[in-house]
Amino acid sequence: MSDDPFFIGWSPDLHKIDRRFLLLATFGLMAGGGGVAAFLGRQGQPPGPGIWDQSAIAGHSGLLVQTPWPMLRMIGDDGAPQTAFLATTGKLAVRLAANARGWVKVRGSLISRGENRMIAVDDGHWLGASEGIEPPGLRDWPEEDLGAAHLVGEILDAKCWFGAMRPGYGKTHKACATLCAKGGLPLAFCQTGSCGSGVDAPLFLDADGRRHGRDILPFIADRVMAKGRMVRVGDVVQFRVARPDIHRV
Questions:
Q1: pLDDT 10s digits, 33-92
Q2: What's domain 51-129's architecture?
Q3: For residue 30, what pLDDT band results from cuts at 50, 70 and 90?
Q4: Cβ within 8 Å of residue 181, ≥6 positions away
Q5: Which of these ranges, 90-99, 153-162, 168-177, 220-229, has the smallest mean pLDDT?
Q6: Is 83 in contact with 53 (CB distance < 8 Å)?
Q7: Is the dihedral of CA 30, 32, 33, 37 positive or negative?
Q8: 56-74 as b/e, with b when 16 or more CB fall inside 10 Å?
Q9: What pTM was computed for the model?
Q10: Cα(155)–Cα(223) distance, integer angstroms
């Protein structure tokens, strides 16, 4: 049988040097663990400045438009035109009757990031006639070609990026973004390096300014290179790209 004694941490016979070593080692491991956690935290994706207060339900009056996605065209407090896209509180697009249009009021909570806006409609009866008179200019939003663009970045769902999720981009968000895209929510495009800190992500559409089909889904939340044109419609910038001009990088 071995003559070496067993190690018993609570034994009063534990040598003072051993106790001192174990104490210092414990504090060292705690400090090291904190340092690693801080480093990993700095390497993580910045969440971005998106805001969504789901308890702030309010009525929003505007001109209801169904294409390329359901949205309200409104006049802001500063007199400038504003677009707010419409979505459910989940990962689905709103359902509208084919003849739903005109000056309406939508009840819901506002999702915002910079100049980007979306309304998560309230459950139940969220769409109705608006009081007051439709202001002039809402039906005439000029389309301006801003020129060709060749960008590297990420296709993502606009709802999460606007503020429904933080962060609302990147590999960790791929499954969620794909479900939102399948549910018919608007898509946006953010350039590499600006997804977290930037405030601009143009609406992502096909070359004709319409929604992409389901063949776009495999590219969601991946790093891609896209070549198309930038077009401004009212206050919304669109990145129009034909499906063959999207390539994974």
A1: 655 444 434 444 555 567 899 899 999 999 999 999 999 999 887 888 899 999 999 999
A2: Beta Barrel (2.40)
A3: confident
A4: 157, 187, 216, 217, 220
A5: 168-177
A6: no
A7: positive
A8: eeeebbbbbbeebbbbbbb
A9: 0.78
A10: 8
Q: How many whole angstroms separate alpha carbon 165 and alpha carbon 146?
A: 30
Residues spanned by CATH 2.40.50 within the chain? 51-129
Q: Which two tokens stand for residue 230?
A: 């930038």
Q: Give CA–CA dist 229/237, Å, rounded.
A: 10
State the virtual CA torsion across 78, 82, 86, 90 in degrees, nearest 10: -60
Kindly state the tokens that stand for 207: 């070359």
- Strand pairing report for 51-65 and 71-75: antiparallel
Which stretches of the chain are DSSP H helices? 16-43, 158-159, 174-182
Task: From 57, 179, 52, 37, select the one nearest 108 (Cα to Cα).
Answer: 57
Cα 155 to Cα 126, 200, 223, distances in angstroms = 29, 13, 8
Is the separation of the CB atoms in 149 and 229 below 8 Å? yes
